[in-house]
Amino acid sequence: MTYRKVAMPARKRIALVAHDGQKQNLVEWAKFNRGTLAAHEIWATGTTGAMMETVLGLPVSKLLSGPLGGDQQVGAMIVEGKIDFLIFFWDPLEPQPHDPDVKALLRMAVVWNIPTACDRATADFIISSPLLDTAYERRVPDYEAYRRERLANDDLKAAAKIAKGKS
Q1: Does 20 qualify as catalytic in the annotation?
Q2: 150-164 per-position pLDDT tens digit
């Protein structure tokens, strides 16, 4: 697999997501880090975004509620390079009706190599990193090259299968 570098600006685009059982925890974390968050662009899913905007007094770009597709919207923004890191306080003790969406969101964060915090301690480490306020280049697999390679291999296999069938 080949890799490419993706630039992250000094002003990060941060997605905040929390399940119902973790919303208060995320609110407390965000209040504690309000000054740092104010220097960045904040995105959030539905109810979490409304809470953040009210509590922080900062503009928050709000997406749909998680169960209505907000988690998938965040995932799509990660793929499109519009989110630089994810703070997702998910509730590991409560089953969620949209668990597949949650898994897909976390998968996209890993596939596109963006910093992700699923708990307060990790969020503290990310927000206090000296890399937060600087431009940064993250290393991402070159999926276009991977796709071209896969297509070429599939074409070769198909040609071999056709040739074998004619023998």
Answers
A1: no
A2: 777 777 677 777 778
